[in-house]
Amino acid sequence: MSGRRSEGGAIDRSKPISFRWAGKSYQGYAGDTLASALIANGVSIIGRSFKYHRPRGLIAAGLEEPNGIVQLEAGAVTVPNVKATQIELYEGLSATPVNAKPSVEFDLLAVNSLFKRFIPAAFYYKTFFWPSWRLFEPSIRKAAGLGDAPAERDPDHYEHRFAHVDTLIVGSGAAGLAAAEAAAALPGNERVMLVEADFEYGGGLLSAAEPVEGLAPLAWRDAALARLRAAPNMLLLNRTMASGFYDHGLVALYERVSDHLPPEQRSGPRQRLWKVRCKKVILATGAFERPIAFSGNDLPGVMLASAAQTYARRYGALAGTRAVLCTNNDGAYDAAFALHDLGCTVAAIVDSRAAPGAGADAARQRGIEILAGFVPLAAKGRRAVRGLEVAALGGGVRRRIACDTILTSDGWNPAVHLHSQAGGSLAYNEGLQAFLPKGAPQDAISVGAAAGILDSDTAIDAARAAMRGEPVEAPVQAAVGPTRRFADGDTRAQTAWLDFQNDVTVADVQLASRENFRSVEHLKRYTTLGMASDQGKTSNVAGIHVLSGLLKTPAPAIGTTKFRPPFDPVTIGAFAGRAVGEDLAPLARTPSHAAQVALGAKMENYGGWLRPAYFPQAGESEQQTIAREVHAVRRSAGLFDASTLGKIEVKGPDAAEFLQRIYVGGVRTLKVGQCRYGLMLSEHGIVYDDGVFARIGEDHFLVGTTSGHAAAITETLHEWLQCEWPHLRVLVENVTTGWAVMNIAGPKAREIFAAVGTDIDLSADAFAHMQYRAGTVGGVPARVQRVSFTGELSYEIAVPWGYGAALWDALMEAGQPHRITPFGVESLMAMRIEKGFLHVGSDTDGTTYPQDLGFGPAIAKKKDDFVGRRSTMRPDGLREDRRQLVGLEVTDGGPPIEVGAHVLPADATEARGTQGWVTSSVYSPTLERPIAMALVERGRDRMGETVRIWDLGQWRAARIADPRFFDPAGERTHG
Amino acid sequence: MLLITCPHCGPRAEIEYRCGGEAHVERPGPHDQVSDQAWADYLFYRANPKGGHRERWLHVAGCGQWFNVARDTITHEIAAVYPMGETLAEGSAA
Q1: How many whole angstroms separate alpha carbon A958 and alpha carbon A966?
Q2: pLDDT tens sequence across A477-524
Q3: What single DSSP character describes residue A757?
C-alpha cells in the first residue's frame, strides 16, 4: 500500500473523479486509467491468480497487462475481464476483481497456493481423468474462474463501418505520427487514416523525457498532431485498436465509441467494428517489454520498468517509495530516473551486464548504486515486496536489498502481431534477443519500435524514409545483457513466473521439456503458456528463451507460436453489430399474416417463414385443434396460405431439355397445361428437393420447390446452366415472392373457388387433377394448379403478391356457407402422412437415394442422364439392404411413436443392430389411430411383418405397411 | 477476406461471393459408360495445390454470375479473373 500521487503527469488535476473499486470509494483525475488511479491510491493487490489464487498486482500499463483484469460495472452493462489499464476513468465508475472470493485481501482458494508443487502443467489432465474429467470440471472451472458473463440482455448496440484508404497508420507514437505526416503529404494519397488504441495520442512519447528532434516529447507530439488535424485527407481515430490483419489489405479496427463515458451518458453505438481495405499499412505498433523470471516475481510490487515509468510520467502515480531496477539494457534506466526524479528512492540498479552502458553515468550522478553483472534471485515478502535478493551472475556474491518496488526489463519484443497476421515472416535479432518483422507483406511496413528501432529520432527518420519507399532496417543497437537461466531441478523455478494470467512458471516449461514437448505449439497447449486473454504478450518470448536454453536449440530455430487475430479481445457485440435478435435473420411473413394472427393462429418459424402451426379455439388442445382442422378439410373445405412454396420460372427454347437433365423423371413429354411431380437430386445422388412443376407454355415451365428452398434451388439451376451447359438457351428466375398462393382443399373446394368468381372452367373434365390453368380470379390475373398435398380436391390459386390478402379474405367469405376452416402446417402434415406423401427432409436424410423412396422403376425407364443419376449407381446405391420408405401401423394400442425411434426385428431382445428409424409420425384424426412412416432395411419386401420399435428405453410394437393409409386409390383427389 | 474483382460488378469483398472450388473439372458421361473410378475422380478428387490454383466463384450477393479466378493459395494473390467456358493460357498467370 505504498503507491501515491506525485507531481507532474498529463492528468487534469482540476477534474477529480470519484470511483469505486471492490466496494470502496476512491478518487482519481480526468486522464487516469482505472489502473493508474488504483496505483495512486495505494491499491497494490488487484486480483488473485487464475490457478493458485496468489495475490497479484499490476505489472504493465498497457493492453499487455496480464493480472489486472476486472469486472466493470454490474447488471446488464457489466463487462467481464477488462484490463484495468484499458479502462478510462469516469465519474461513478465501479469495478471489482474477478477471481477472488470473498476479497482480494483474503481469498479462500489461496490454499491452492500451498500445494503449488502438486499442480504442475497438465496436472488436471493427468489427475482427473478417472472416472471422468466431466465430474471434476465444473468445480475446477469455478476455482479458475474469470469474470461473470452478463445474465441480462445487452442494452447497448454496436455497428459496423466499411472504409477504403490509401494508407492506414496503426499507432501514434513518434514513428506513427511521422509516417502519418509523410503519408498525408504524399501526392495521390487521398485518404489516410491513423488509429490509436489509447485515448491519448503519443504512444511512448507520453512517458518519455528525452527530447524528440530537439523538442520536449509532448511538444513534438502536439505540433505533429496539429499538422495532421489540418490535413484534409487525414482521419484520426483514438480509442481504436487494429485487431486483425486479413487478406488483400483488410484491417479490422475496434473502436470503443462510448465506453469512456458513465453508462447513463452514453448514446449512439457503444462500439464500432471497422473493416478497412488499405492499399498500404504502416505498422507503428510499438513493442512490449519482457519481464525477468525470478523467484517471487509475481509479488505485488514487481512490475515492468516501462510500466512504472508510464505511471510516473504520464499519470503522476508512483508505485512505491523505494525501488530497485533489474535490467539487461540501457533503455530501462529511464524508468529508474523517472521514479527518482519524482521523489521515489531508487535503492539500486541491478544490471546483468558486467559493463553497463551510457545510462550508468547518469545514474551515478543521481547517486544511484549500480550492481553490474548482478541478476535478481528472489523477491521477498508475502503479500507485497519487502526486499530483493540478488546475486552475481556467475554465482558467489549475494546481496539483499530492502525495497517495496522491483522494476524489471529483460529487453523488448516488437509487436509483430499484425505483421505476422498479414503473412509476414520474422527474423531473430541476437542483439535484441527478439523476433523482428521481416519484409513488408501486403505492403504493410513496420516502423519504430515495432521494427526494433527503439530510439525516437532514429525511428522518425526511418518512418519518413519508409514512406519514400526505402526499406526499414533496425540499426545496430547495443546488445541486451545476459539473462539468468534456471538449472533443471532449481526449486526457485517453481515460483518464477512466465505467464502471469495462466500461472505458468519456468518449472512448468522445464517439465514440458523433460516430457519431450519440443515444439513451441505443443509447449503452449501443454503448459497453457500464452493461452490466456493476453495471448502471452509478456510471456511468449520469455518462454521461448527458457525452452531454447533447455533444448540447447537457438531461439530462431524454435520459432514463435502463430499470431492470430484479434490482437486484443474484441467484444462479441462488436462482431455481431446490428445482426442481433430479430435482425439476425428476419422472418418472412405471408400475405395473409395479419388475417391469420387475427384468427388466433399459433405462428411458428418454419424455415425462415412465420407460418401458422394451427388455429386453436378456446379450450382446445393441440391435438383437438389439428383433428378439427383435418375433419373440416376432409368433410367440407379448408384454406391454407401456401405462398411460401418455391416458385421458379424456367423459360427458353431449351427449357424442357434443361429440366430433363435436372429432374429424376421425364419432362420433355409433358404437355402444355399439365403438371407433374418432380424429384431433384444432388450430384451425389442424394434426394435434394421435390415439388410439382407445370408446363405453362411450350418453352415455359413453372418449377415448384419446398418452402424455404427456392433460393437454393434457383442458385443450383443457375450453376448448372452457367458452368456446365452454357449453350442451353434458358432463363431462370425465382418468383416465389411475386405470387401469393392460397390453397383451397376439400370436397367443397370447387364450389367455394367458383363463388369467388373466375373465368377458368373448373369442371372436373375441363380442369383435372395435375393440370394448370391461367385466367382471372376475382378479377385479378391468376395461375391455378390443381394439385393436392392433403389428398382432397384441391386448388393452389396464385395471384400477384399484393392481392394475396384480398384473395384470402374473398375465399374465407365465399366459404362461409360451407364452414370453411383455415388450417395450419401441422394439420397439413397430419393429412400428408395419412396419404403417405413424402416430405423431403423429414422422410429423407443425407444418405437417401431415390430408389429408397420407390423411384427405381421410373429411373430405369428414363434413358437420359440427369443430375445425380450416375451416383445412384455407385456400389452403395446398389446394395440390397438399403433402407426403404414404408408405413408403420402401431399394433400395441399406444400413442404415436416418437420420430427417431429405432426399428428392430420382432425377435430383438436388446437395443442393438438397428434396421432403420421412424421419420414421420402422427395420430391420424381421420383413421382415429396412430400411424407413422419409417426408413427400414429392405422395407418394401417386408410388408405385413411385425417389428419392435425402441425409443429411449421403451419398447413398442408395429407392423410394416403400405404408407398410403387413407384413400390409397386417390378417388377423393380426383373428385 | 479476399477482394475479388467481379467481371461484371468490379472489386467487391469476399462476403459477396461463394467459392465453387476447383475450376475446369470435366463432368464425365454418358452415365452408363462412366466407371466408378472416373465418377469418383469427378465427384471427390481435387488437386488442392499449394500455390497456383484455378477456381470457380459466384457473385451470389451481386450479379449472380459465375466466373473463374486464378489465385495463389499461399499468398492469396489473384492473377486473373476470366469467364466461364474459357481457359487461361499456360504460364499466363498463377
Answers
A1: 18
A2: 889 999 999 988 899 999 999 999 989 999 999 999 999 998 999 999
A3: -
- Which pLDDT does position B94 carry in this prediction? 44
Whole-number Å distance between alpha carbons of B44 and A939: 30
Residue A202: burial class (beta carbons within 10 Å; 0-12, 13-18, 19+): buried
Pick B31's closest partner by Cβ from A249, A870, A875.
A870
Using a CB-CB cut-off of 8 Å, the residues of chain A touching B26 are none
CB-based contacts of A380, cutoff 8 Å, min separation 6: A296, A386, A387, A388, A389, A400
| 3-state class (DSSP) for residue A934 | strand
Q: Does A870 touch chain B (CB under 8 A)?
A: yes
CB A45 within 8 A of CB A74: no
Runs of H (alpha helix) within A818-911 = 825-835, 856-861, 869-872, 875-878
Residue in this structure with the C-alpha cell 527474423, named with its chain if needed: A427
Cell reading at B74? 499461399
**A174-185 vs A217-230: helix crossing angle, rounded to 10:** 30
Question: Rounded CA gap, A486 and A543, in Å?
Answer: 12
Q: What are phi and psi of A249, to 5 degrees?
A: 70, 20
Which of B14, B27, B75 is facing A724, going by the closest CB pair?
B27
Q: Above 70 in pLDDT, residue A857? A: yes
Q: How far is CA A887 from the centre of its chain?
A: 43
pLDDT score of B93: 47
Contacts with A899 (C-beta within 8 Å, 6 or more apart), sequence order: A842, A918, A919, A920, A921, A932
Q: What gap in Å lies between CA A51 and CA A144, rounded to an integer?
A: 6
Distance CA A915, CA A943 (A): 15
Cα A956 to chain centroid distance, Å, stands at: 43
Sign of the four-CA dihedral A342, A347, A353, A359? positive
pLDDT at A375 over 90: yes
B43, closest residue in chain A (CA to CA)? A684
Rounded to an integer, what distance in angstroms lies between the CA atom of residue A238 and that of residue A177?
Answer: 13
Model pLDDT, residue B90: 61
Cell 485518404, located at residue: A191
What number is the ipTM of this complex? 0.96
* Number of C-beta neighbours around residue A628 at 10 A: 18
Q: What's the pLDDT at B89?
A: 74
Please give the C-alpha separations between residue A492 and each of A376, A484, A504, in angstroms, as whole numbers: 12, 12, 13
Query: Which residue type occupies A222?
Result: D
The packing angle between helices A520-527 and A540-551, to 10°, is 110
Q: Inspect the interface and report whether the beta carbons of B1 and A726 lie closer than 8 Å.
A: no
Helix (H) or strand (E) holding A59: none
Residue A962, all three cell numbers: 403400405
DSSP conformational letter for A454: -
Residues of B in contact with A278 (CB under 8 A): none
* Alpha carbons A89 and A431: distance in angstroms, whole number: 39
Query: Which residues in chain A (218-277) have CB-CB distances under 8 A to chain B?
Result: 246-250, 275, 277
CA distance A892 to A422: 66
Contacts of B31 in chain A (CB under 8 A): 865, 869-870, 873
Please give the Cα distance from A121 to A99 (Å, whole number): 20
Instruction: Tell me whether residue A748 is exposed, middle or buried, using C-beta atoms within 10 angstroms of its C-beta: 0 to 12, 13 to 18, 19 or more.
Output: buried
How far is it, in rounded angstroms, from Cα A611 to Cα A619?
22
> CA B52, B57, B61, B65 torsion: positive or negative?
positive
CA–CA separation, A299 vs A302, rounded Å?
6
A800 touches A774 (CB < 8 A) = no
**List of residues 6+ apart from A598 with CB closer than 8 A:** none
Confidence bin at A48 (pLDDT 50/70/90): confident
State the cell numbers at A34. 482505472
Which one, of A322, A321, A294, lies nearest residue A398 by Cα? Answer: A294
